[in-house]
């Protein structure tokens, strides 16, 4: 299934920032979207989400159309500049959402305007290797895919990479062919350039930043934990696609490799976050993008 291009819009230089102790987190948007989320979250139909009043207006329209975002998050510590996931990328093809193909966005210019030109990034960190999280790893130069962040070490969870490497040659249906295309045009070129370090899913990136295992969506999915000066934040990756999953943690994505594990992971993470004051920063959350998890009966809600 391919989604409607009309659901997408550019936001220009859409930048938000948060401070976590001495660490600054900056969001740079590539595309935002209203509606058309059937590929991402099939259970979250307009009728199903309209009753979740707190989603409006930031995360849902009045008629139940979900709002989502494709963006990157830059973590600036006193010593490091880390980009978490690299969004969609220009000129990519064979993506399952039609609006993701042959893009011509000024994402790199937006990144530079926010204060983070590609050459200033020293670390590229991935929550997982799906196509909408690795696209700007590379760009086309004279018909060849070349690395974008040439001064960066690209940190890839070994289990995640091995899963896609093994499956890339046997992909047959549409969505898996898309994963295979992304592996070839956005992942393998940085491996071949010697820019990748394979790590565990609990890897300590630096004093303030580490991966935490959040399995289920993919084989080696990890979220990102930031701690500084007694403050804490979590960047979700796709263990939570949309805030509606706080109200319904049992709602799973069509892209989940292990839906039961993904649900268990989500409940566990949300329970943990509801018990402290950590900031939750959503990898696909539109609007405010970040907030605190609070209990709401048997489930949760995002307080922004």
What does this structure look like?
The chain has 304 residues and is α+β, with helices and mostly antiparallel strands. It has one domain: 4-Layer Sandwich (Metallo-beta-lactamase, Chain A). Helix content is 20%, strand content 29%. The strands form three sheets. Strands 1, 2, 3, 4, 5, 6, 9 and 10 form an eight-stranded mixed β-sheet that branches. Strands 11-12-13-14-15-16-17 form a seven-stranded mixed β-sheet. The protein has a two-stranded antiparallel ribbon with strand order 7-8. It is globular, with a radius of gyration of 18 Å. The model is unreliable at 1-13 (pLDDT under 50).
Write a compact overview of the structure shown.
The protein is of the alpha+beta class.
List the helices and strands and how they pair.
Blueprint: E1 8-9, E2 15-20, E3 23-34, H1 46-49, E4 67-76, E5 81-84, H2 107-113, E6 123-125, E7 138-141, E8 144-147, E9 153-157, H3 158-167, H4 174-192, E10 196-199, E11 204-206, E12 209-213, E13 222-228, E14 231-235, H5 244-247, H6 259-274, E15 279-281, E16 290-296, E17 299-303
Parallel strand pairs: 5-6, 6-9, 9-10, 14-15
Antiparallel strand pairs: 1-3, 2-3, 3-4, 4-5, 7-8, 11-12, 12-13, 13-14, 15-16, 16-17
Proportion of residues in helical segments: 10-25%
Low-confidence stretches: 1-13
CATH level 1 name = Alpha Beta
| Structural class assignment | alpha+beta
* Count of distinct strands: 17
**CATH-defined topology:** Metallo-beta-lactamase, Chain A
Q: Give the termini distance in whole angstroms.
A: 33 Å
How many domains, as an integer?
A: 1
Give the number of helices: 6
CA-based shape: globular
Q: What would the average pLDDT be, to the nearest integer?
A: 92
Under the CATH scheme, which architecture would be assigned? 4-Layer Sandwich
**Describe the biggest sheet?**
8 strands, mixed
**CA-atom Rg in angstroms:** 18 Å
β-strand amount: 25-35%
